[in-house]
């Protein structure tokens, strides 16, 4: 189906959010992705829908990291409001089931936050008392995607909290630094009672999953969205 670009938001120097309006409404589940195709380009790519799922949706949002040498994403900087793209899907079985609501732990590395945004929007839009806590790992402070939104949500919703971990911080940074560690998770997740959702580079996923296992979290409470370009686990 055709979709029109309604808005382009520069989240960080390397990450853009596209708000698009499909010509026919789309139904999808929170956590699913859609395939993008561009006119004149033979290849397409999957991108997670960065908003809560629902029936007959008229507006979708995608947050995309631009690889300057990327076969697909290098073409996205040239898009303008009013341009058309081709969408298909939804695809994927990384699905957030809000019918069995529980406290949620979100663990994001870089642009992996996009799919986890769909989850925190889902929980907060449902207005439940369930807690959502996000640990967001970024390379440096300029790479915090959704910076203003995260601050606003934390003010608005007492059940939403987040922590940023900066790998290579500026000396003025006062928060967590380096990689995610057991110490950071112990501090942020305390009793580890949440249902956990992880997305990010493969090394980040492996590290986070290992820390959760170490804390006694069983696999049935760990949900991982593998983006294949990050060399999926299956290929190890
Ligand atoms: C289900 C799903 C959902 C996704 N959702 C999103 C999303 O919401 N936002 C988003 O930005 N992306 C998302 N992706 C990734 C996206 O589909 C593309 O893979 C990505 O944008 C790169 O595409 P490209 O053609 O520009 O890059 P390519 O030309 O395919 O590669 C670009 C760069 O990726 C790096 N790269 C390639 N392969 C590997 C590898 N194996 N390991 C490490 N680095 C590698 C290289 O540095 C290369 O320069 C998702 C993928 C899947 C499968």
Give, in spatial order, the strands making up the sheet with the most strands: 5-4-8-1-2-7
- First-last Cα distance: 36 Å
What's the CATH C level of the largest domain?
Alpha Beta
Small molecules in complex: flavin-adenine dinucleotide
**Proportion in β-strands:** 25-35%
Number of helices: 4
Note the main sheet.
Answer: 6 strands, antiparallel
Q: Spell out the helices and strands N to C.
A: EEEEEEEEEHEHEEHEHE
CATH fold annotation of the largest domain? Rossmann fold
Number of strands: 14
Structural class: alpha/beta
- Write the CATH homologous superfamily of the largest domain: Nucleotide-binding domain of ferredoxin-NADP reductase (FNR) module
Would you mind describing this structure in some detail?
The protein is an alpha/beta fold. The protein folds into two domains: 2-91, Elongation Factor Tu (Ef-tu), domain 3, CATH 2.40.30.10; 98-235, Rossmann fold (3-Layer(aba) Sandwich), CATH 3.40.50. The protein contains four helices and 14 strands. A six-stranded antiparallel β-sheet has the order 5-4-8-1-2-7, with no helix packed on it. A hairpin with a 2-residue loop joins β1 (2-12) and β2. The N and C termini lie far apart (36 Å). Residues 230-236 have low confidence and may be disordered.
């Amino acid at each position: 189906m055709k979709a029109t670009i309604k808005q382009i938001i520069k989240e960080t120097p390397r990450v853009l959010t596209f708000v698009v309006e499909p010509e026919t409404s789309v139904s999808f589940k929170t956590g699913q992705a859609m395939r993008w195709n561009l006119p004149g380009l033979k290849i397409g790519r999957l991108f997670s829908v960065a908003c809560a799922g629902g029936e007959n949706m008229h507006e979708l949002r995608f947050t995309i990291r631009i690889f300057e040498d990327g076969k697909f994403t290098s073409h996205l900087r040239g898009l303008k409001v009013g341009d058309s793209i081709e969408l298909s899907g939804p695809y994927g079985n990384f699905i957030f089931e809000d019918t069995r609501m529980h406290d949620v732990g979100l663990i994001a590395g870089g642009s992996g936050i996009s799919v986890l945004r769909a989850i925190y929007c889902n929980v907060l839009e449902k207005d439940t008392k369930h807690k959502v806590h996000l640990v967001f790992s970024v390379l440096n402070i300029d790479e915090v995607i959704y910076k203003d939104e995260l601050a606003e949500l934390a003010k608005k919703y007492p059940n939403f909290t987040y922590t940023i971990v900066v790998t290579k911080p500026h000396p003025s940074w006062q928060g967590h630094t380096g990689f995610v560690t057991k110490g950071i998770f112990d501090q942020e997740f305390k009793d580890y009672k949440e249902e956990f959702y992880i997305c990010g580079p493969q090394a980040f996923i492996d590290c986070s999953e290992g820390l959760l296992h170490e804390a006694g979290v069983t696999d049935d409470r760990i949900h991982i969205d593998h983006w294949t370009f990050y060399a999926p686990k299956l290929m190890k």
